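Work Package 3 (structural annotation) set out to generate three-dimensional models for the target panel prioritized at the project kickoff. During this period the team completed the workflow that converts sequence records into discrete structure tokens, so that structures can be stored uniformly alongside our sequence database. As a representative example, we reproduce one entry of 345 residues exactly as it appears in the project archive.
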Amino acid sequence: MSTEKIRNKKIALKDYVTGYPKEDDLLLLSSDVELKVPTGSNAVLLKNLYLSCDPYMRGKMSKPVVKSYTDSFTPGSVITGYGVGKVVDSGNLNLQAGDLVWGITGWEEYSLIEAPERLIKIKYTDVPLSYYTGILGMPGLTAYVGFNELSTPKKGETVYVSAASGAVGQLVGQFAKLTGCYVVGSAGSQEKVDLLKNKFGFDEAFNYKEEHDLNAALKRYFPDGIDIYFENVGGPMLDAVLLNMRNHGRIAVCGMISQYNLTEKDSIHNLFCIVSKRIRMQGFIEPDHKHLYPQFLELVIQYIREGKLTYVEDIAEGIEKAPSALIGLFSGRNVGKQVVVVAHE
């Protein structure tokens, strides 16, 4: 008896990218896929519902010159990223057809996942499933770990968040307010600044593109200095922040999106401030902290239900829109968490 096959649209990397990526660096391809896992396999077949566009994916588009925490994409092959899917068929004892999961999947309509133990079964479905690409997924845990665990915040401290309207930044600001901190965020448009102040409850926010002197801007918002900086940008912003940190301040380094597309990275001139101000600066990645996901999930789902946390998504409909959605991240085109809807459940 023959197995049912279906046409499977997918997104592949055309070739390694240097400098700023373009939409045509990504290809829309299609091929047939069987709607059954191989006999005797431990794999699961997913119907992908939502795909997550994340800044770290830019590094995976580059030729692997320096060993990183994540492998580069392979030109000509389907790219991968975080997503939400529904199990179509399973050879795994812990997952059954109909289960909803989130984790790393292919950027395609259907994905055969050969290491399904890395997928997380979705526990709560009284919130939008797309939230598992953001507030209840990797970006949410990233915000939680970087702020609550690594930054050791205390009530009354001053907090600065760059790229503050993005998938991670909008949550960091809200976690900081729940802790009782004074919070300022920066973003790249007036629309995003308004979102930070009126939707997410930041105390202040500014458009960094309108500031000719970042050092002066930070002094204006933090006359007594910054206790905690959540770093998403790098470059000149980091240089200015170092001058404005308070003694014994903490910097959680989540990303440096201003540097991802540069062939020559910006220099940092004020690093001695780390010594003179006794600053603790720590880089981190979410996969190192997966063990905290269960406690994070229970806390954040309760916050959502109580209306203490809000989340904004920028939705692109259809896998055909995936290249545009991903590339738009690097010019700040998205407002909120960028999500691609592949299929509706």
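The chain has a mean pLDDT of 95.
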